[in-house]
Amino acid sequence: MGLMNRIRGFFRQHTRSSIPVDVPSLDEINTIAYIIDHTSWAQGADSYELETSEYQYYQNVLEHVRSSLDMHIVYRDNGWAAVSDELQRINPDVVVEWHFNSFNGSAQGYEALTLDGRPSVLSDIFLDTMRNEFPDRVERGVKYPHRGKYNLHIASGATPHCVLVEPFFGDNTNDVIYPSDMIRFIRLFTENLRKHRG
Ligand SMILES: [Zn+2]
């Protein structure tokens, strides 16, 4: 291991351990907020296979299940300050921010980003539901949120129980999840959230 890697490893460990661990346990999940990141003018990654952007994809699938699942959909179209205000008003037990990945066309799998890069109740429920529903797919586990750090910090202002999920790679034809399957997944995932008892 090179010196730079050792320095990076040291820095990462100590950055992580500086995050407070007195997160209250999650007894029951009643109020759920789902964030659609990206905006109508900056729609995130595009998927050629799905013929859609991250923004349009999650708008489509989440609006489809909104009334039957009794959850809040929070858009970022008015900026992060508005998201923060809306989350304060909703006062959710959990916040989940929905994305899909894009890399080199062949990367695959699903992952969850948590504030400190460690597994949480939310990342467990997400990964368990993915594993059950899509058993042939690659589980990439829990990641430290280099990219989504800012987003998770905003979400954590409303509740420490927040996660950013990347269920697939939109630029990999073999890894995409079509909207009908994602709708089914979101129903199951939401049911599993509601079944949770701390
Ligand atoms: Zn994204």
Strand content: 15-25%
Just name the CATH architecture: 3-Layer(aba) Sandwich
The CATH homologous superfamily is termed Zn-dependent exopeptidases
Round the mean pLDDT to the nearest integer and report it.
Answer: 91
- Give the ordered list of helices and strands: HEEEHEHEEHEHEH
**Which ligands appear in the coordinates?**
zinc ion
Could you give the distance between the termini? 40 Å
Helical/strand content category = alpha/beta
Tally of alpha and pi helices: 6
- Structure summary, number of beta strands: 8
Question: In a nutshell, what does this entry contain?
Answer:
The chain has 198 residues and is α/β, with parallel strands linked by helices. It contains 6 helices and 8 strands; from the N terminus they run αβββαβαββαβαβα.
Q: What does the secondary structure layout of this molecule look like, with pairings?
A:
Blueprint: H1 3-17, E1 32-36, E2 46-47, E3 52-53, H2 54-69, E4 72-75, H3 80-90, E5 94-98, E6 110-113, H4 121-133, E7 139-143, H5 149-156, E8 162-166, H6 179-195
The structure holds zinc ion (ZN).
Explain how this protein is built:
With 198 residues, this protein is an alpha/beta fold. Helix 2 crosses helix 6 and helix 4 (121-133) packs across helix 6 (179-195). The longest helix is centred in the last third of the chain and has 17 residues, at 179-195. Helices cover 40% and strands 16% of the residues. The model is unreliable at 13-18 (pLDDT under 50). The chain has one domain (29-195): 3-Layer(aba) Sandwich (Aminopeptidase), CATH 3.40.630.40. The radius of gyration is 17 Å and the shape is globular. A hairpin with a 4-residue loop joins strand 2 (46-47) and strand 3 (52-53). It has helices at 3-17, 54-69, 80-90, 121-133, 149-156, 179-195, and strands at 32-36, 46-47, 52-53, 72-75, 94-98, 110-113, 139-143, 162-166. The protein has 6 helices and 8 strands. The strands form 2 sheets. A 6-stranded mixed sheet has the order 4-1-5-8-6-7, sandwiched between helices. It binds zinc ion. Zinc ion (ZN) is lined by residues 37-38, 44-45, 54, 99.
